[in-house]
Amino acid sequence: xxxxLTRIPSVKTLLxxxxxxxxxxxxxxxxxxxxxxxxxxxxxxxxxxxxxxFVWIAWWAVLILVAVPFFGRGWCxxxxxxxxxxxxxxxxxxxxxxxxxxxxxxxxxxxxxxxxLQNLTFTLVALFSSVILTTPKVTAIVxxxxxxxxxxxxxxxxxxxxxxYICPVGGFIGLYAQAAPLELRVKDKQVCLTCxxxxxxxxxxxxxxxxxxxxYGCPWDVxxxxxxxxxxxxxxxxxxxxxxxxxxxxxxxxxSADLAKPSTRMDEAFKAFIMLGAAMVYAGVFLGPWGTLKLxxxxxxxxxxxxxxxxxxxxxxxxxxxxxxxxxxxGKVFSRVKTTLKKSFTALATALVPLGLMFWxxxxxxxxxxxxxxxxxxxxxxxxxxxxxxxxxxxxxxPMLTSVLVxxxxxxxxxxxxxxxxxxxxASLEVNISxxxxxxxxxxxxxxxxxxxx
Amino acid sequence: xxxxxxxxxxxxISGILLVLAVPFAAQGTRxxxxxxxxxxxxxxxxxxxxxxxxKAGVPIHLRLTSEDVMHGFAIGQSDTPVVDVLPGxxxxxTITFDKPGxxxxxxxxxxxxxxxxxxxxxxxxxxxxxxxxxxxxxLYMNLNLEIDAAHPAVVTPVGIPDAQRGKQFSGLxxxxxxxxxxxxxxSPAQAFEDLRADPIxxxxxxxxxxxxxxxxxxxxxxxxxxxEGKRLFAQNCAACHGETGGGNGVFSGKIQALAGKIPANxxxxxxxxxxxxxxxxxxxxxxxxxxxMPSWGPILTEQQTWDIISYLxxxxxxxxxxxxxx
Lengths: 454, 326
Hints:
CATH topology of the largest domain in chain B: Cytochrome Bc1 Complex, Chain D, domain 2
Distance between the termini of chain A: 37 Å
Order of helices and strands of chain A: EHHHHHHHHHHEHHHEHHHHHHHH
Radius of gyration of chain A: 23 Å
Structural class of chain B: alpha+beta
Number of helices of chain A: 21
Shape of chain B: elongated
CATH superfamily of the largest domain in chain B: Cytochrome c-like domain
Largest sheet of chain A: 3 strands, antiparallel
Distance between the termini of chain B: 89 Å
CATH architecture of the largest domain in chain B: Orthogonal Bundle
Helix content of chain B: 25-40%
Strand order of the largest sheet of chain A: 1-3-2
Number of domains of chain B: 2
Oligomer: heterodimer
Helix content of chain A: 55-70%
Largest sheet of chain B: 5 strands, mixed
Radius of gyration of chain B: 27 Å
Structural class of chain A: mainly alpha
């Protein structure tokens, strides 16, 4: 059940032409640089600083409530962080030049061709998040560090290695993109098999440069002909531009489509635990009534924080995976089938993708609706210097939609649990074990999350 | 180079430069006369900036925020309203100083054991060259009172002296004992000794003399003054001295660890009945004594100190306790 969006001529033109994307990039890059500036030079009061408000409230709301659930890696297609690096790497912004770029163009090491590094970067950001999320300067430094790291990596390695292997955000967007109702796929795999040059992966040949078909090989290091899931496709539309056979399609599809094929990778399984666990810890720290916990999370470097960090890491990397492993093991005992425990574990961890996504949606709803009012005032006074650009500087803070928040969160969490149960059942059929213990596990963490949020 | 490539490069580069230039170009457009003050607990830095300048008659606009817990902002010896300073929020206020001089601003919320150290200075300059009013030395200096010395009451009453009962004998009281000068310079215990020795009052029992002392103390205060004193006490003193004056405020444990003894217990007759109002005022104005007692001189007006003192004696005298709701 697919609907090919690129069959609509206007959609196809918009996606193929480089200008619409470039103009969005342009706006994003300007906003991103402005956020860094605001963080560095603006007020130190977080909720009066454009940097904090636009990154952690506005962008986060759009990302987790709209972009990821509905467009998967849609954000990656317009993200500004890797752009200057990519332009430098290519030596061009629009069309490929005839000359070869002079940079190192190294291959990313094989041992690191997984998302463990992204697991690590996300965990690092998560450990310091109380400070990053509230201190404009720190936010600015983190954003700038990502920006310059992306540029540096573009000059040393080929393609978008920062996006694929380092970006702390890219890792979980990829994981949750599997559930999104949007995909880029080839129309006919046979066409790809017989295609000689594969410009979608290699870039258009020298002779074609300068033509309307000219373009780069997949920046995300993915061969479109082999795509079976969304995880590593950045939706940059480069292959749509270069395919000589018009064989690339952007499709609308049912939610959850990629999850029917369970993952076999441990790095992806752990990404699911990290995200699930981090959402729960955040709900406790940011929305819970425990002052001591909050203080510990904020007091980076103190003993209290070290205890918090160890507990956080223990919860994410030991407690959650171990109890999940226990559930998988029980399911295996009852089925008496010879699937390895590792294979069953990674397959069933796929079921945690919708649950984790819905945990994040539920958590984000409360703090986004609580703080959305700051968007108006920080637009008018981005540096907190007492400006009033659009007349909204004095816009009063007020939580929004408080009456529907709790029912909405409950709906999201219960919906997420049902979605996970369905996914777990499908995954369990693939590896021939019982899904019941995993569904019990999911129910338990959902109840815990309900308790933390409501 | 293709036209589109050139155009996109121009667009991107000029755009980036434009964005980067904004904060530098816009520095000058910061609203004039705005002073942003950040509060932190004294242990981690106090007020920042802790000193700023203003001109008499020229309004200044303050933007106040806290970087940790809730603080309060007040300016000593002025009728500027007290505002709360909250983390993550901007409290804005506009103030104008009428007279040049150095003002002290301070925290009014009990933010931590060193709460009272959260102070800063406002240097208000004036156009006129008039010299500031010559200050008068506080009474304890004129009286040569040793405010650091121990001052136990040489004699204390058996029960709680009652001003209402004392009023019955007020007809016998010589005028000298009723003047404010007498009240301010004598401790209640000294007053008792004086009255006891007075031949006119020889017929009164000791308890009745004490009642008369209570009456003298009450007649030197007004109900409004005691109410104001009670308010000021709750705001500024109760954190250490306790809401009921027992020396057991929320920070008393920390003070004890610091100074080796608890804050003064105003319910203790030996301590309070041995202290003259001028002595109490001296302790208040100067502070110190090696006990963590702040100096209130730059903050409280003279009237406010007398109001607090008249409230402090309500911990000792019965009628006052009943009359002012204590």
